[in-house]
Amino acid sequence: MATTITLTGAGGQIGYALLFRIAAGDLFGPEEHVRLRLLEIPQGLKGAEGAALELQDAAFPLLDDVEVTDDAAVGFSGANHALLVGARPRGPGMERADLLAANAGIFGPQGAAIAASAANDVRVSVVGNPANTNALIASASADGVPSDRFSALTRLDENRARAQLAATLGAPVADIRRVPIWGNHSASQFPDIAHATVDGRPVAAELAERVGDVRTWLADTFIPRVATRGAEIIEVRGSSSVASAASATIDHVRDWARGTDDWTSAAIVSRGEYGVPEGLVCSFPVRSVDGHWQVVEGLDVDDWSRARIDASVAELSDERDAVRALGML
Ligand code: NAX
Fold first, then answer.
1. Which class would CATH give 155-320?
2. What residue segments make up the domains of the chain, in order of their start?
3. Cβ of 240 below 6 Å from ligand 1
4. How much is the average pLDDT of 252-265?
5. Helix (H, G, I), strand (E, B), or coil: what is residue 39?
6. What is the CATH number of domain 3-152?
7. Could you read off the pLDDT of 101-150 as tens digits, one per residue?
C-alpha cells in the first residue's frame, strides 16, 4: 500500500525541491511507495504540472501516481500526510492583520477539506507562513480531526541553530543534540542551548572556552543569527531559503511518522505545557513516539530563558487575538 502525500504550493519553489526528495524515498525509506497529490491555485497549476512531468521523467521506482489539481476535495482525498506549503506572502503595503486574514482564508477551507476527505490517520505539517497561526486556523477548521494531528515547521530553525553551534565549536553537526526552538517561527523565536550537548558534553561549557561570556554571545550573536538567517539567505542568494526548507520539512515529517531517538522541535497545539496558553500552536522541545509528538516535560527553565519564551508566546497570543478579531476563529 502506498502512502498518499498531499502537497499544497506544489508549483512553488519549496514544492519543487520537496517533490523530488519525497519521490526518491527520503521520507519513508526505500521500501515504501508514495502517491502524490499536488494542490495549487489556478495560477500555480502550470508550475505543478511541469513538476509532475519531470517527476515522470525521473522514473522514480517508489512513485506510484501523481495527480495535479486546484480542487481541495480532490487534493486531500485519502491523504495520510498533508504538507501545507502554499501560502499568501506579504505584499507591498500589507499590514499584519491583512496577512493573517488572507492566510486564514486559505488555511480555514483547507482544514475543512482535510476533515472531509483525508485519511483517518492524516497528519498535517504546516510550512507556509505565518506557520504557527496557519496551523492553528487549519486545526480549528478541521472538525473531527484531533488537534494533535497538526504541527508547524520549526525544524529549519533548529537545523540552523545546530549548524551554527557546530561551526562555532568546530564539531560535526551530528554531534550537536538537544537544541530546541521555543515559540513562534518568527524573529521572536528562542533557540535554546541550555540542555544542548556536543558529543555528550554540555555545549555551554565548551562555548565558554571559545566565545567568552556565553550569555552575551547568545543574545548578541547566536540568537539573532539563527532568527534572521532567512533574511541573510535572501541577501546572499537573492532569493529565499528553498532546499534547506525542503530538507527540514523532510526531517519533520519523517520524524513524526517514524519516531525520534532524541529531542527535536515542532510547533504543536499547547496543552498548557510550560505555562504556554492552551490551544496556541507553539514550538516546544518534543519527541516523536508512535506517530505522536510529545513535549519533553520537566526541563528547568531559568528566568533569562523564560523571558524569551514568554516574548515569543505573547506574539503567538497576539496573532490568535488578531485572527479572532477578524471572526476567523
Ligand atoms: P513560492 O511563492 O515559490 O510558492 C508558493 C506556492 O503556493 C505558489 O506556487 C502558489 O501558487 C501556491 N499557493 C498559494 N496559495 C495556495 C493555496 N491556497 N493552495 C495551494 N497552493 C497555493 O513560495 P516558497 O518559497 O515555496 O515558500 C512557501 C511558503 O513557505 C511561504 O509561505 C514561506 O514563507 C514559507 N516558509 C516557511 C519556512 C518555515 O520554516 N516554516 C521556511 C521557508 C519558507 O520561508
1. alpha beta
2. 3-152, 155-320
3. yes
4. 97
5. strand
6. 3.40.50.720
7. 999 999 999 999 999 999 999 999 999 999 999 999 999 999 999 999 99
Residue 81 a catalytic site member: no
How many CB atoms are closer than 10 A to CB 287? 17
- Do the domains at 3-152 and 155-320 have one common CATH topology? no
Residue 91 has pLDDT above 90, yes or no: no
Question: Considering the chain, what is the average pLDDT of its residues?
Answer: 97
> Would you place residue 97 in the very low, low, confident or very high pLDDT band (cuts 50, 70, 90)?
confident
Distance separating alpha carbons of residues 299 and 194, to the nearest angstrom = 10
C-beta 111 within 6 A of ligand 1 = no
Residue closest via CA to ligand 1's atom 43 equals: 245
Q: What is the pTM of this model?
A: 0.98
Hey, CA dihedral for 236, 102, 251, 186, is it positive or negative?
positive
Q: Looking at residue 1, what is its pLDDT?
A: 81
Catalytic residue chosen out of the listed positions 33, 185, 195, 252: 185
CA contacts within 13 A on the Cβ side of 192:
29
